[in-house]
Design a protein that fits this description.
The longest helix is centred in the first third of the chain and has 47 residues. Helix 2 runs antiparallel to helix 3, helix 2 runs antiparallel to helix 13 and helix 7 packs antiparallel against helix 13. The strands form 2 sheets. Strands 6-7-8-3-9-10 form a 6-stranded mixed β-sheet, sandwiched between helices. It has a 4-stranded antiparallel β-sheet with strand order 2-1-4-5, covered by helices on one side. It is built from 27 helices and 10 strands. Helices cover 66% and strands 10% of the residues.
Amino acid sequence: MAMDRTTGELLRAATRHSGARCVALGLVNVTATAAQLLLPAALGRALDLLLTHSPATRWVLSCAALALLLTLLDACETVLTGTLDARTTAFLRRRVTGHVLAVGPRATARFGAGDLVARVVGSAAQAGTAPGARAALLAAPAGPVGAVAALALIDPWLAVVFLTGAPVLTLLLRSLARGTSACVADYQRAQGRIADALTEAVAGARTIRAAGTADRDTARILRPLPELSRAGRRMWQVQGRAAAQATAVAPLLHLAVVAVAGLLLTRHRLSAGDVLAASRYAVLATGVGVLVGQLSGLVRSRTAAARLGEVLTEPAPPYGDRRLPREGPGRLELRGVTARRGDRTVLDGVDLVVPGGTTLALVGRSGTGKSLLAALAGRLADPDGGEVLLDGVPLPALPRAELRAAIAQAFDRPALLGTTIEDTVSLGLASPARVREAARTACAEDFVRRLPDGYATPCADAPHSGGEAQRLGLARAFAHGGRLLILDDALSSLDTITERQVTRSVFGSTTSATRLVVAHRASTAARADTVAWLDGGRVRAVGTHEQLWRTAGYRAVFGTDGETEEAAGAGTPAGAAANAWADARAEARAETQAEAGSGPEARR
């Protein structure tokens, strides 16, 4: 029921968006129907005058004028229908795309990327024909109704003969609407599954080629194809059966009307012109084929709109109107945060505080919820329980613009949006000078300057490795600014030297923002002010890297054998090597803090 209401509201909004064109199309259709109803009467009158050798010039010219008018109206209908469908499709695509982006990752998790693309592209185009089909369908019954009324004016018996078959035609149209709706829904669902599987395969094309599983993955992508074929055949069978039945009934009714008209002609109750007019009106009255086509189009468009309505029923996160403190340091706090994915509880009652201006590294084995916690901190997702606060303000209470201005984020696989390199770093929010400064901070300026047009190089023409893409993503986060910087494994593809240069910028004094870093390398964790160790959906411990390193379970997170580290205390060669490694890490961290002037000693 809720989805039906959403679908209805969506189609009404689309109709209002092009209301003037809908009205114009309706008027054109009504005018064309009126001309079609006048033409048989004019033809009949002209025939009677010609047969009696009376002056018929005015009626012949009237017939020619009506024929010319119908030609012009048909051209107008074609233009109006095309532009109306295009405008409505564009409106629906903007509406659904904006909602998908507002919902965020939850939309992709529910529907799948490929299915969403299929809905935004294919379903929106099909649903875009709904206002035009509705305008045409509203005027379409006027033809048969007016034709029956004209038959009654010629002679009531003609209308009575035709109306004997009207219930059959009504049942045909009702059966068509029901059968087509179910078939079209099945067809579009199968299309969505194929599109989703194809999107996954395109994203993993290198893996598929390396594994040599192209044939198997092709079969997996096309697995819904038989279902698609069955749904398509059922759809055409329903429409073909309805059209066949209509074409079987319509000629019988037409012949019956013409036969009665001929009988009345022999009894001198009708003229030859009346018989001609009655024959033409019978054709108009039995124009079920037109109604079948228009009704089928409307059913398909409404079914497609229902698929768009499913996307719109996924609620977008709400925003508030509270403001952040003007001089807030960027203190991040998680209070009793619980987050689930499906039936699994990934984070369970997490309490965590990141003091303003400090760096906290999130450490844990794969699947412990590090990226999910980072997403909650940046409000890319909302917790199922508890709350996340920035400078004492719950994130949902902030306006969208202020929230996004306060938090900058970088990811392991950044999406390089925008037309040029400069555009993808600035996203239209940073000045050219700030873009270049951020690129230098992220060690990206050297390779950007080597591109054919530097910062003006189109993203599609800019070859870049995974590490270069990460540096552009980091530059975008640095250019964004804000009081909280979140790096979700955003250093994983960097080489050792570049990583050290970038981490000096991230953990040094180049920014006063609070930094939350998802760390997979011990070297990254060693440079952070504090480390939060996630284990089993909870924060197992919080401390410096050196403090936590004494725990075998923490060392195991980085793949270090606990027995080897314990042997280090006994002075074994392996232990000496481990101690040397730990001393080197501590020395590097101390060196970075001394250079940056932002470590705990410097602050004290």
